[in-house]
């Protein structure tokens, strides 16, 4: 009888231990399913070359936020989305990667209570460093050409609205449409013809490559006593050291 009692009690005592491995396996499967994308990225990153990892990271940089685009630490931001990268070239400087690529971007610029839409096509360089999130992360030192051209465009708008021919002249390259004095004379004549006129930028279309840039500008010209007019301008600029200067259209 003693033997019979032990045999009858065994299923009741061993049922719970069988249930524990089943629950653990189910939990592990759920975790694997939840983090399947991250695990796949880790697995693929382990076999990809650093250059391939950088290229994949670049392809995921679909947005960009630029601070202080107005200059002089006076604020201004540019929000770009989507941003597309073509002709990507990757070089390594130690653990960091130097990326050169042709960018296409759309968005808007905000500064001093104003806002304008922006489209950009340009070749830019920026650095990326190894990180745990996307294998490589951008360091935020890109868009150097776009920043330089925007800075010149802001200074031009400021000079016009301040009725300051001298400030406008400082933005002209030495060969801008002939002698700089002629550009100043023309600006002074425009100011005299339309006293009190102010411009408000509506949109910029910028194309920059190496040391030159072209800009299409849609703007509104307001003259006291007249209805505001929507006009369009076209500029060419060239890099002069750290600055961009106007070579035509100023």
First-last Cα distance = 110 Å
**Shape field:** elongated
| Average pLDDT for all residues | 81
Beta-strand share of residues: 35-45%
Low-confidence spans: pLDDT under 50, at least 5 residues? Answer: 1-16, 18-24, 32-46
Order of helices and strands: HHHEEEEEHHHEEEE
SS element count, helices: 6
User: How many domains?
Assistant: 3
Helical amount among residues, as a percent range? 25-40%
Number-wise, the strands total: 9
Biggest beta-sheet profile: 9 strands, mixed
Radius of gyration: 30 Å
Helix/strand/pairing class, anyone?
alpha+beta
Keywords: Membrane, Transmembrane, Transmembrane helix
What does this molecule look like?
The chain has six helices and nine strands; from the N terminus they run H-H-H-E-E-E-E-E-H-H-H-E-E-E-E. With 250 residues, the protein is of the alpha+beta class. Strands 1, 2, 3, 4, 5, 6, 7, 8 and 9 form a nine-stranded mixed β-sheet that branches. The chain starts with a helix and ends with a strand. The chain crosses the membrane at residues 16-35. Keywords: Membrane, Transmembrane, Transmembrane helix.
